[in-house]
Amino acid sequence: MNAPWQPLLEWWFGTAQTSRAVAADKGKLWFGKRDSQDLEARERFGDRVDQALAGELTEWAQCPEGWLALVLLLDQLPRMIFRDSPKAFSGDIRAQALVAQGIAADFDRQLQPIQRVFIYLVFEHCENLAVQNEGVSRYIALIAQLPQEDRSLFADYLDFAERHQKVIAQFGRFPHRNAVLGRESTAEELVFLSKPGSRF
């Protein structure tokens, strides 16, 4: 009998055997903004996201794979299902606590490297520089453990983490969230937002 989180992990990571193959197969799902993908996330996993946001499914966090799936329900899928609304970020606090809990149990080291990317992405989403710094450190440590042929792929993930880190170091928050969250942008932030690559 399949674990209840298995359909989500199969949808998110597929069945390819290497990090590069998984990324090639699923990269557009992860980082592409497509209405069809957002709709599929809502139709297939919207009920699970609602449960996770309500503080349910905590029993999933008793093993690494269930913990990973619960992190996805709190951190990644709300950004798809509730895109361009404040609710897109509504799972972030729970996800951060869950990641801290799992890392303390060494769960991240029991996952595949490509799966660990989505644990450490939670650090990138936090508007706190100390948390950003930890995320960058986690990616650096992960890359050091990889075979040479995988390092360029994961270096791209590190680069993205460092870009998030620099924004928080400069502004203390992500200016591209201001409009959605009803925050007023400063003049400096408006200049930043006018530049390419400012919105992730």
Q: Beta fraction of the residues? A: under 5%
Following the backbone from N to C, one meets helices and strands in this order, namely: HHHHHHHHHHH
Q: Decide which structural class fits the backbone.
A: mainly alpha
CATH superfamily: Tetratricopeptide repeat domain
Second-tier CATH architecture: Alpha Horseshoe
CATH class: Mainly Alpha
Task: Please outline the major beta sheet.
Answer: none
Alpha-carbon distance between the termini?
Answer: 39 Å
The radius of gyration computed from the alpha-carbon positions, rounded to a whole number of angstroms, is 17 Å
Average of per-residue pLDDT values: 96
Overall domain count: 1
With helices defined by DSSP (H or I, 4 residues minimum), what is the helix count? 11
Overall number of strands: 0
Q: What ranges have pLDDT less than 50 throughout 5 or more consecutive residues?
A: none
What does the overall shape look like?
Answer: globular
- CATH topology name: Serine Threonine Protein Phosphatase 5, Tetratricopeptide repeat
Helix content: 55-70%
